[in-house]
Predict the 3D structure of the following.
Amino acid sequence: MKKRLMTWIKKIIAGLVLAVVAITFFQVVIYRYVNPPFTVNMIYERTIAAHKKMPFKPRAYDWKDLDQISVYLQQAVLASEDQRFMGHHGFDFREIKIAINDIIAQKGFRGASTISMQTARSLFLPSSRTLTRKLAEAWYTVLIELVWNKKRILEMYLNTVDWGKANVGAQAAARAYFSRDAKNLTAEQAALLAAILPSPHKWSAVNPGPRVRQRQTRILKQMKNMPVIK
């Protein structure tokens, strides 16, 4: 009886794992061809606000294809967030090693997330900070790199990343901060938008402080070395 029960439990677990794999793979395949009408985090934030009976400001979100987004912004984001984007398969192990060494040397914590990892997080997962979410992020990153090309990954990232002040994606951020479309951003404006990405709810692209200005200057210098993805 006990052996039969264990066999049944193993089958249930295996079935659940296969179901998760199939569902997540289907999601990623669909979004290779279909532009998402919203992100999971947008729904998550609305649900949490409703549950806690808190006021909720709807997120501004307006999808734009990559050719409708300033090349300057594309290069600025690569310079700021993932300079080896074209050369890795979702995980930048060189950057991860540096981050680990910094922690060991007590130099503080630095992020090592690639654009692929951030895309997985912003599109498919809520903003909660749990081990389960980190594991799910890694799994979705593998699927994204397997199914999408680099152009689609960057396009998805630019449209789903949280740019602060209830703005999701490049178009919403460009309209909110500079009153122009994403395709018309200047190099300086693009570098400012990229500069605030690590902390978009604290840093301002409209009234940038010294740290943001310093990041903008560095990004502007590095942008010319970034590829243009076609």
